[in-house]
Design brief:
InterPro entries: Transgly_assoc. The protein is mostly helical.
């Protein structure tokens, strides 16, 4: 059940990150959600425990982990945007 919640939250974070980066129309919602899930998972696994939060696999969803996951999704979307177009917006 935790994995399903993680995917849903990651998808929502990917959607919000795509609106922040203004890539929601040009890359397609599916790519934005997938990149958001991957970015959120990477940030949740790697960065959240380093700053004293619970890792995303612990089943605890906190504001700290959601913010870090959102930042990870935004960064990964910026990197994808850089490789696709040659410039970050």
């Amino acid at each position: 059940m935790g994995l399903i919640v993680l995917l849903i939250v990651g998808g929502l974070i990917g959607w919000v990150a795509s609106m922040i980066m203004r890539t929601d129309g040009q890359q397609g919602i599916f790519l934005n959600i997938v990149v958001g899930i991957v970015g959120a998972m990477l940030a949740g696994f790697l960065i959240t425990p380093l700053i004293g939060g619970a890792p995303i696999t612990s089943g605890v969803i906190s504001i700290q982990s959601v913010v870090v996951s959102l930042l990870g999704a935004v960064v990964l979307l910026a990197i994808i945007n850089l490789f696709r177009r040659g410039a970050v917006r």
